[in-house]
Design a protein that fits this description.
May play a role in anterograde transport of membrane proteins from the endoplasmic reticulum to the Golgi. Pfam families: Bap31. It is a multi-pass membrane protein. 92% of the residues lie in helices and 0% in strands. The protein is mainly α and 212 residues long. The N and C termini lie far apart (161 Å). 6% of the residues are buried. The mean pLDDT is 83.
């Protein structure tokens, strides 16, 4: 049991160092550790991890209870004997339980540290992706704004060009209207002249008839 706990502590320390310091382990090992932790927190892996942690917590509580039990038995023995009584078996068991409880507590503490580090690393990666996406969207927005500004400038130039063409055509229309008015006045003068000539013609005809 103690040897297994030492192995577990060594593994957890290596995992913790690989998560805390990027230069401690290669990038491949770090990514492999993160992917393994991701899978352990999904589906059946999470159930297994919770079961193991619960078992270790129960064993820790059992060791602490055994320590209190041995301590109480020693106290009762001292009271009954009325002096100092050294029980080597109790001392060995107490030392064993203290070491076991210390190792179990350290294992649980390192497990909690690994869980929090993994959580913070994932949050940091998520924030980095969010920031990168935001920067990309901002860049796209700036490019769209620049393109829109250029299009607006082009449209303004076309509007000014159309306004100048409209002014030129307006001046031509005014000139044509003036010519049309002059022609109208001229035609009215021709009509008046035609009426006068027609009246003179009729008078000449009446005069000719009277002469005949």
């Amino acid at each position: 049991m103690l040897q297994l706990l030492y192995y577990v502590i060594c593994v957890e320390m290596i995992v913790t160092l690989s998560l805390v310091f990027k230069t401690t382990a290669p990038i491949i090992i770090r990514r492999l550790v993160i992917v393994t932790l991701d899978r352990m927190k999904r589906g059946r892996g999470l159930v297994v991890v919770k079961t193991v942690v619960g078992t270790l917590a129960v064993v820790l509580c059992s060791s602490i209870y055994s320590m209190f039990k041995i301590q109480r038995r020693r106290r009762n023995t001292l009271l009954e004997a009325g002096g100092v009584v050294v029980n080597s078996t109790d001392q060995v068991l107490m030392s064993k339980h203290i070491l076991e409880a210390s190792l179990l507590g350290f294992v649980l503490f390192l497990s909690l540290m690994i869980d929090r580090l993994h959580h913070y690393i994932r949050e940091h990666q998520r924030l980095r992706k969010t920031i990168a996406t935001t920067k990309k969207q901002s860049r796209i927005f700036d490019d769209g704004k620049r393109a829109l500004t250029e299009e607006v400038a082009t449209l303004m130039a076309r509007v000014k060009k159309l306004e100048s063409e409209c002014e030129v055509k307006g001046s031509k229309v005014k000139a044509l209207e003036a010519n049309l008015e002059a022609l109208k006045n001229q035609s009215e003068g021709f009509l008046l002249e035609y009426d006068r000539i027609l009246g003179d013609n009729q008078n000449l005809r009446r005069q000719l008839k009277s002469i005949e």
